[in-house]
Specification:
The complex is a heterodimer. Chain A is mainly beta. Chain A is 6% helix and 69% strand. Chain A has a 14-stranded antiparallel β-barrel with strand order 2-3-4-7-8-9-10-12-13-14-15-16-17-18. By secondary structure, chain B is mainly beta. Chain B has two domains: 148 residues; 173 residues, no CATH class. The chains are: A mainly beta, B mainly beta.
């Protein structure tokens, strides 16, 4: 029953997050799990995470706040014979959830207010195969299928007429990507390098106006490539990690990509019966704000991993940070909750097989 | 004493619910970050590139109202025939009772009619007048009568009008009679289609009063058929007449070619100056259709879907009909802009709109009709392709 729930939870996903800066480029970028931490390659694992996010955005004069919930990640890894490993991951790669509202604009004796709500994003289904060599090195390759859709609802209110028009822009995404990684383990030290190479991402746009007119448009973009590495140290009670990711843009279309950076430090300390975790990160987005300012995000997080007997861990994490560009600042707080099952299937096999 | 595990779980739960309580608040922020979607309302006042008036004869057989009367522009005549009535000889006297609409429903004038026998067969549904023009010849049914043979004179001055029938005129009654108005003004009588005010026949003898039945085969059978026909006339002036009965309609077409294609029309009001000549009611109902093919006078093909309606007081000097949906349709599909037709709705035979009364109304358009349009631009796509 628990396994069934784990599989069903992501299917019922309500893919919501929230940032005004998601209006830029392909949306808010989410890092794949294997580019941030180095998980065990010797244990079967299944991980499901959800995020609840609170954001307060302000430009110093007006403010918005929102609280939304979304699934963050579903990840599965199973070791295979001959030091092979097979991984699958489902996560949202680019998030397009936002809400913006215009000031009252006067023209031709009329006052217009526009409210735009965006929902959806670009999902990534990632499959990987890796091969270890003498327990000290490994190589891995992966394929990613990008898919998903987003919806923008534009409400335009003309105050004097009491009229409201509603237009919808529907986007459908489809694309592919590949990546490779290599890692070494030297005693308590681990090092991983990776490079994600995106192929074209196709976007089909449908415009539905208040009168049900539909215009279909199509475009193609190349998402930024991802390259970087992770350095991890593991001792008896302490684990430390440092990850760096660069988003290297090669697309020169209207989306105006720039090179993005992410640095995140992680720590975990075994404090029986829990594992306490902490992290600190800094992210510079792969797109700029409307006034050309860099979008930067600094965050800190603490959490814990609670052992669940015979199954794995429950995960709780609280992160807070500041995302800002130009005059707009977003204070965000995320509460993550998840379950991580380890060797679950293996144990069951023992029970059934004797 | 709480365990550490319990303490951690409760702390996170408390934080979660505090965030939940924060709820969502949306304010004017961040629109500039979109970098698309102009904040402008476009406002245009258009004048038609074509205006024309045309008349359309609407058969008023089986209408609920019989219109009789005249003014200096129109003459409405009534046709009546009586099937059966063979048992008229069994009574001392027989009366046809016509009933006028009460004044609080439709204001009527006192009208005197001269009644003549018609000399041609006529059909209650399609009877009308003869008129030939460049397009076609109208139906002739019901128009011919013998003006040398005055059957009777009848003055409609009360809510019920009694007409004593002559047994020697039975053949005339069955063939039909035409009621010609002799003075200015209009009266409105209930027709056979109007149950409450339908005409009926009573037979009188020394002992009793018998009501004739319209059910064929009854002992005292008499069925009244009736219709209104409106005398055609040539338009007396280049006025853009707008009327009902002999339905005067106005065609106009507004050029929308200058509008961008991807827009949201937020309002589109047809504003027309109007001078009312005559109406028996205190309000005027207008209806606006769009043409679905090139303009062809009274043979123009109209969309069955009504584009806009408005009801104004008779003393109003202008009307405003909103048809934002049609203008949006025209903008989206420019080839469909064949123009529109404005008319009174009194004579529209559309039961679903409850057009129970059919009354004579006439007025004219003053000044130049205007189409007042506001629109906003459709949002640009976030991911523009090469086709846009």
């Amino acid at each position: 029953m628990r396994r069934l729930l784990i599989f069903l939870l992501p299917l019922g996903s309500v893919l919501l997050a929230y940032s005004i800066f998601n209006t830029h480029g392909l949306g808010g970028y989410t890092t794949p799990a294997e580019f941030l931490k180095i998980p065990s390659r010797t244990q079967t694992s299944l991980e499901v995470r959800f995020t609840s996010e609170y954001v307060y955005a302000t430009d110093g004069q007006a403010g918005q706040n929102a609280f939304l919930v979304r699934p963050e990640r579903f990840r599965f890894y199973v070791p295979l014979p001959w030091r092979f490993g097979l991984g699958a991951q489902m996560a949202q790669r680019f998030n397009l959830d936002f809400y913006v509202e215009s000031d009252s604009a006067r023209s031709a004796d009329y006052t217009l207010i526009r409210r735009v709500k965006g929902r959806g994003g670009i999902e990534g289904l990632r499959l990987s195969l890796d091969k270890g060599f003498y327990d000290i090195a490994y190589l891995g390759v992966g394929y990613e299928r990008l898919f998903g859709g987003a919806w923008e609802r534009w409400d335009s209110e003309i105050v004097e007429l009491g009229e409201m028009t509603v237009d919808s822009l529907l986007y459908y995404f489809g694309g592919n990507g590949v990546w490779g990684m290599a890692g070494f383990k030297l005693g308590p030290l681990q090092l991983r390098g990776f490079y994600g190479y995106p192929l074209d991402l196709g976007v089909t746009t449908e415009v539905q106006t208040s009168r049900d007119t539909t215009v279909v448009d199509s475009a193609s973009y190349t998402p930024p490539a991802e390259l970087g590495g992770i350095l991890a140290y593991s001792a008896n009670k302490l684990e430390l990690g440092l990850a760096y990711i660069q988003q290297k843009a090669s697309d020169h279309t209207s989306l105006s990509f720039i090179t993005g950076h992410l640095v995140e430090a992680n720590a975990a300390y075994k404090f029986k019966p829990f594992i306490l975790t902490g992290k600190a990160g800094w992210k510079s987005w792969y797109v700029e704000s409307a006034d050309g300012s860099p979008i930067r995000d600094t965050y800190l997080g603490i959490g814990t991993r609670i052992p669940i007997e015979s199954y794995g861990y429950g995960i709780l994490e609280l992160t807070g940070g500041l995302r800002e560009a130009g005059a707009i600042s977003e204070y965000h707080v995320e509460l993550r909750a998840g379950l991580e099952f380890r060797e679950l299937w293996k144990k069951r096999e023992r029970m059934w097989g004797g | 004493m709480l365990s550490r595990k319990s303490l951690v779980i409760k702390s996170f739960s408390l934080t979660f619910f505090l965030l939940l309580l924060a709820g969502c608040e949306e304010g004017p922020l961040g629109f500039n970050e979109l970098g698309r979607g102009e904040l402008e309302v476009h406002h245009f006042v258009l004048e038609p590139d074509t205006v024309a008036t045309f008349s359309k004869q609407i058969a008023l057989g089986e209408a609920t109202t019989l219109i009789g009367g005249r003014d200096d522009l129109t003459e409405a005549r009534i046709l009546i025939s009586i099937d059966g009535l063979d048992s008229i000889v069994a009574f001392d006297s027989v009366k046809l009772l016509l009933r006028r609409y009460p004044a609080d429903e439709i204001a009527s004038s006192d009208v005197t009619f001269s009644i003549y026998p018609v000399t041609a067969d006529w059909d209650e549904i399609g009877c009308t007048w003869v008129l030939a023009d460049a397009y076609n010849k109208w139906l002739e049914l019901g128009a011919e009568f013998d003006e040398s043979d005055l059957v009777a004179e009848l003055t409609v001055a009360d809510d019920t009008v009694e007409w004593i029938l002559d047994p020697d005129r039975l053949e005339t009654y069955q063939q039909g009679m035409i009621l010609l108005p002799e003075n200015e003004g209009f009266c409105y009588l209930g027709s056979d289609e109007k149950e409450v005010y339908a005409p009926f026949i009573l037979g009188f003898d020394a002992d009793d009063t018998t009501r004739f039945s319209s059910v064929a085969g009854s002992d005292y059978y008499a069925a009244v058929h009736d219709a209104t026909i409106l005398k055609p006339y040539e338009a007396p002036s280049p006025d853009t007449l707008l009327g009902a009965g002999l339905a005067w309609r106005v065609f106009m077409r507004f050029p929308l070619d200058t509008f961008p294609q991807d827009i949201d029309v937020t309002s589109a009001d047809l504003v027309v100056g109007y001078e009312n000549f005559f109406s028996p009611e205190s309000t005027l109902d207008f209806v606006c259709y769009r043409l679905i093919d090139d303009y062809a006078g009274r043979f123009s093909a109209l969309s069955s879907a009504i584009a806009g309606r408005d009801s104004i007081d008779v003393t109003s000097d202008s009307l405003s009909v909103s048809f934002v949906g049609v203008v949006q349709f025209w903008v989206d599909e420019p080839d469909s802009n064949f123009g529109l037709v404005l008319s009174h709705s009194f004579l529209e035979a559309i039961p679903s709109f409850g057009q129970e009364k059919r009354v004579h109304v006439l007025g004219r358009i003053t000044g130049t009709p205007r189409l007042v349009v506001t629109y906003t631009a459709v949002p640009e796509t976030r991911f523009p392709g090469e086709e846009r």
